[in-house]
Amino acid sequence: MDASVIIPAHNEAETLSRCLAPFESQSAEVVVVAGGDDGTERVARETSLVDTVVRSDEGGAGAARNRGAEAATNSVLCFTDADTVVPDDWVRLHCRHYANPDVVGVGGPARPLEDDLKHRVLFKLLSDYWYRVSWPVGFVQQPGFNCSFRADAFEAAGGFDEDIPFMEDTELSLRMKHRGRIVYDPDSRVATSARREADEGYLSLFAKYVRGYANHYVLRREFDAEYF
C-alpha cells in the first residue's frame, strides 16, 4: 500500500529533524504541517525527504492533521507527532494490515523518550496494557502519535473533529470502528516525549480524560472545551 506520513509540528524546530530521520529509509510521502514562530517551517522546507510542507496556525492538532491529510496523495494516512520517533519499519508495520480490505485503521503503543523509570512504567501501563484491555471490548483509542487510516474511510468519516481541544484521536477512533476493523499492532511501538505528562502530572491528565470519557460516552454530552 502507498502511504503518506503526516506530521503536525507547532514550534518544534528543535525536535523535527529527529522525528524525520527514520523516514530516510522508509517508502512514504512525508507531509509536515508547520506552525509557530520558532523556525519549524524552515526546518521542514530544508529537509530534502519532506515532500510537502503545509503552513497552518489555526486550530489544534486535529485541524493540523486534517490539513496534512488534505495535502496527502496516497491510500494510507499515517500520523505521528514532531516530538515522536518511529521505528525504521514503522510505515511497513502499519501498511501490512491494509492488505485486509476490512481494516480501516491501525494503532500502536508508545514508550517515553525520556530515560526515567516512572515514565517507563506508566507508559507501559497506559500506552500499551490499557490498549490491550480496552480495544477488545470496543473502546478503541488510536493515539495521534501512532495511528493510521485508510484514506477513503478517513475522508468519508470527516477526519478529526477540529472543535475538540484534545482526545480528538479517541473520538475519531470510535467513529472509525463503525466503518471497519481497527487493528492494534504492539510491534509498531514509537518513542514519544513525556514532557506533557511531566508538566501536567499523570494524575491530572488522567482526571481530565476520565471526565471527558464520562461526559461524552456515559452521559452522552457533546465534547466541549470546558470539560477539560
From TrEMBL:
Q: Where does this protein reside within or beyond the cell?
A: Cell membrane
Gene Ontology molecular function terms on file:
glycosyltransferase activity
Task: Please tell me one Gene Ontology term that the record gives under cellular component.
Answer: plasma membrane
Q: Which UniProt keywords apply?
A: Cell membrane, Glycosyltransferase, Membrane, Transferase
Give the E.C. number(s).
Answer: 2.4.-.-
Domain Glycosyltransferase 2-like intervals: 4-124
Isomerase in keyword set: no
The protein's name: Glycosyltransferase
Its lineage opens with: Archaea, Methanobacteriati, Methanobacteriota, Stenosarchaea group, Halobacteria
